[in-house]
Amino acid sequence: MGLIRLLFQDPLTFFLVAIPLLYSIIIHELAHGWVAYKMGDPTAKWLGRLTLDPRKHIDPIGTIALFLIGFGWAKPVPVNFSNLRDERKGLIFVSSAGIVANIILAFLSLLLLRVVQPAPGTPVFLLFYYAAQINIMLAAFNLIPIPPLDGSKVLMGFTSRRFQYSLMRLEPYGMFIILGLLFLGILNPIIAFFRWIIWSMIGLLLG
User: Per residue in 22-43, pLDDT tens?
Assistant: First the structure.
């Protein structure tokens, strides 16, 4: 369901979903740029993208899509991998940074639910609950190894130059492929599997 429908049906839930979703996407992109900066590429810093300011990250088309169909995106943080001190390690660490950031946010949300113990159904409970669900979904979705998703770039870091080139050639069409596979339901079991792995990891950490 698109967020625009939720806004009219349940305004409170809209804000409890929209705010965590917005900042989860922003922090995901910020993590890419921050790790790239630490590994030698200042591109994101030079362009003012190492910030939580939504104006620096919002993609107009991605935002409209999010409101209309419930699926959207932010502007990717630019990374020049040739600037990194170790390009192969950089490809893995920078690409996985957003996924790791989302998993950490999900863990913190569930930890706060346990510590604060708000009554179920209250705004505080729903805020933490939705934040955890959103971040687990973002992490699971980005683990899919289809360009331009992060999982494909993490995979590139472990593969040959020839395979990397093949994936890069696929990138201009990747989002159309992903949308098609989502529409057909083919990606659902893969996303569910990644969600299960992430939930299991967080469950072990929370005991």
Answer: 899 999 999 999 999 999 999 9
Tracing tokens 């992430």 back to the chain, one arrives at 198
Number of structural domains (the chain) is 1
3-state SS string for 84-97: CCCHHHHHHHHHHH
Question: Exactly one of 20, 23, 26, 29 is catalytic; which is it?
Answer: 29
Distance of CA 51 to the CA centre of its chain: 16
Residue 27 domain boundaries: 3-206
Partners of 58 in the β-ladder: 74
Which one-letter amino acid corresponds to residue 13? T
Catalytic (active site) residue 87: no
pLDDT tens per residue, range 68-109? 766 677 889 999 989 999 989 999 999 999 999 999 999 999
